[in-house]
Amino acid sequence: MLHINTLTFPRRNKLHPYMKLVYLQISFSGAKESATIEGTLVQSFRTIRVPEFDNPGWLWFNISHLKASMTASELVVRRRTLHRESLTVNVTIHSIGTELNKLTISEPLDEKVLNLDEPPPFGYDIFNVSLILKQWEADIVGFQFQFTDDSGSLVIHDALTQSLYCLNTSSPNEPLLIAYRIPLSGTSKTENQPSRRDSQQCSRVRKRKSLVHGTTPGECSLHQWYVNLQGPELQHRILEPHGYYANICRGHCPTETSGQEKTEAQNPLWKTESQNTTISQIPRCVPQTYSSVNMIYIAESGDVSIESLKKMSIESCVCK
């Protein structure tokens, strides 16, 4: 997926690696592109155990806090093994219900052809399970993978699931269920621009260099101001980034004076009035443009969120 800008899930000691990928993708997507999906909210849920249906090949999630506004959902599972020889299998993903203590298995929610000798992008297989948002009312939802080979013969589902994917709930790569507002087809513009990361890094370097060499000393200009987020009070709340450049505007703003104003200033009768000029009429060196900072932080609820925070960094200054 990697095209979201906010992600929350139950707190763990360490971030889920997939969330780290999301954060990195957002960080290099640019503030303007982030603004195009402003307001997107994403919820994420980690696996739980359901003792009465503790089949080792099934995945269970508590979605009692799922927001009604969610419009799409994906199941993210980490591929942990590769076959030594070229081999393909067909896999379908099904939801499992437990209404009245009876199991019900749905029709296929998504289907993929897996090349077992090749790793998937970023190491994760991602399945579209959006249908559960329309038809699910219970707090607990389960998933089962069903496999067939090229001949159509059924494969032992649970055994292959355990062999193929990382299912350990204590592992940082445990399965992740993601629900979000934007449609599945809304992919990031950066996916087809592999060189954008390098170009943006160069752009940031040029901007920082201009802070030092771009203006005459004393004039209104942008100055670097680095905010360290690794202090004792913040390092356990803000996970990424470790700091950022907030910057400040500082310097002299020249006052334009017309010929008539100069004459009036020399006249003692106008002296008192000029002294009473309010400070609000004096040009000040103030921020002109801002940029956002993408941040991973622990919210008051204990969830971990990715959010693009507006006006966190000053990009340019002006006398106003």
TrEMBL record:
It comes from the Eukaryota. It is found in: Secreted. InterPro entries: Cystine-knot_cytokine, TGF-b_C, TGF-beta-rel, TGFb_CS. Residues 187-208 are annotated as: Disordered. Its main location: secreted. GO terms for molecular function: cytokine activity; growth factor activity. Residues 206-320 form the TGF-beta family profile domain. Keywords: Disulfide bond, Growth factor, Secreted. One of its GO terms (cellular component) is extracellular space. The keyword Transmembrane does not apply. Pfam families: TGF_beta. The keyword Secreted applies. PROSITE patterns: TGF_BETA_1 (PS00250), TGF_BETA_2 (PS51362). PANTHER family: GROWTH_DIFFERENTIATION FACTOR 6-A-LIKE (PTHR11848:SF243), TGF-BETA FAMILY (PTHR11848). Belongs to the TGF-beta family. This is Bone morphogenetic protein 2/4. It comes from Callorhinchus milii (Ghost shark).
